């Protein structure tokens, strides 16, 4: 059985409130043994840490504010995230970045919140868990000056093209892949160049409860994604790269351990 790490699971999402323990057990049963619980807001980051504390050595947390919530980022939020980052169970700052696809927060607020969280990563010497959608140029411009002072960064849920991938790799970023690669409508293009990602910078994640892999058979009765489906991301990715699943499992787990220092 594999020992996989889901590097991006929104396990504090309310869709898991009724059966969170069962969801975690189903993941364990198929070899997903550790989880990085994503913090995407002030409250969500606090909840992620609380969940990690209930599962020491199995769950870890990130602390951050998603660009959707950037308009709420203020000195109080910054202080809260800084306090959370003091905990050993918080292994990265984020989810942070830019999202111009929806613009739920004004662009200027997104940029300010992104810079503030990069400053937190510098101050606490934590890796960054990064989000970017339809904002590539601004994202690279803001991030680049910080990278020499931040331990590591991962482009979470990469959905871009080869040019974007090359930019991120040149910046030294790790690449996180989700069930997006299992979507023949939106993600098939990634499979064409996924072998270009260096083996030691590849990470896998579910982004549960989002991005249920469309390649699952039989098709699940619900659209809610779960960490147990990380196995399907692994399967599709291994086939695209042309390596045994066991080899890819061991590599991505070692990468996650190194990236998050766990």
State the name of the first-level CATH class: Alpha Beta
Structural class: alpha/beta
In the residues, how many domains can be counted?
Answer: 1
CATH architecture: Alpha-Beta Barrel
CATH fold naming = TIM Barrel
Biggest β-sheet: count, sense, barrel?
8 strands, parallel
Instruction: Tell me the fraction of residues in β-strands, as a range.
Output: 15-25%
Q: Note the run of SSEs as H and E.
A: EHEHEHEHEHEHEHEHH
Number of contiguous helices: 9
Low-pLDDT stretches: none
Number of strands: 8
Shape: globular
Q: What is the radius of gyration?
A: 17 Å
Kindly state the mean pLDDT as a whole number?
A: 98
- Share of residues in helices: 25-40%
CATH superfamily placement: Metal-dependent hydrolases
Strand order of the largest sheet: 1-2-3-4-5-6-7-8
Roughly how many Å apart are the termini? 20 Å
Q: Your description of this structure?
A:
With 262 residues, this protein is of the alpha/beta class. The chain has one domain (4-260): TIM Barrel (Alpha-Beta Barrel), CATH 3.20.20.140. 39% of the residues lie in helices and 16% in strands. It contains nine helices and eight strands. The chain has an eight-stranded parallel beta sheet with strand order 1-2-3-4-5-6-7-8. Helix 7 (188-191) links the parallel strand 7 and strand 8. Helix 2 (42-54) runs parallel beside helix 3 (75-85) and helix 4 packs parallel to helix 5 (136-143). The longest helix has 18 residues, at 107-124. The chain starts with a strand and ends with a helix.
């Amino acid at each position: 059985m594999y020992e996989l790490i889901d590097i991006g699971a929104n396990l504090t999402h309310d869709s898991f409130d009724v059966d969170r323990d069962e969801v975690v057990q189903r993941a364990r049963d198929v070899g997903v043994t550790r989880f990085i619980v994503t913090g995407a807001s002030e409250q969500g980051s606090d909840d992620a840490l609380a969940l990690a504390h209930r599962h020491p050595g199995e769950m870890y947390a990130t602390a951050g504010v998603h660009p959707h919530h950037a308009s709420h980022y203020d000195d109080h939020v910054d202080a809260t995230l800084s306090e959370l980052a003091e905990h050993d169970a918080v292994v990265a700052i984020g989810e942070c970045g830019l999202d111009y696809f929806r613009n739920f927060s004004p662009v200027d607020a997104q940029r300010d919140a992104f810079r503030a969280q990069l400053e937190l990563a510098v101050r606490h010497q934590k890796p960054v868990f990064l989000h970017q959608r339809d904002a590539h140029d601004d994202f690279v411009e803001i991030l680049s000056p910080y990278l020499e002072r931040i331990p590591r960064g991962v482009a979470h849920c990469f959905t871009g093209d080869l040019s974007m991938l090359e930019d991120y790799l040149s910046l030294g970023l790790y690449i996180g892949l989700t069930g997006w690669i299992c979507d023949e409508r939106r993600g098939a293009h990634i499979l064409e160049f996924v072998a270009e990602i260096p083996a030691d910078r590849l990470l896998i994640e579910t982004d549960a409860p989002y991005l249920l892999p469309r390649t699952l058979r039989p098709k699940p009765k619900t659209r809610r994604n779960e960490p147990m489906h990380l196995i399907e991301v692994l399967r599709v990715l291994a086939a695209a790269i042309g390596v045994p699943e066991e080899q890819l499992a061991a590599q991505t787990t070692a990468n996650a351990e190194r990236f998050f220092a766990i």
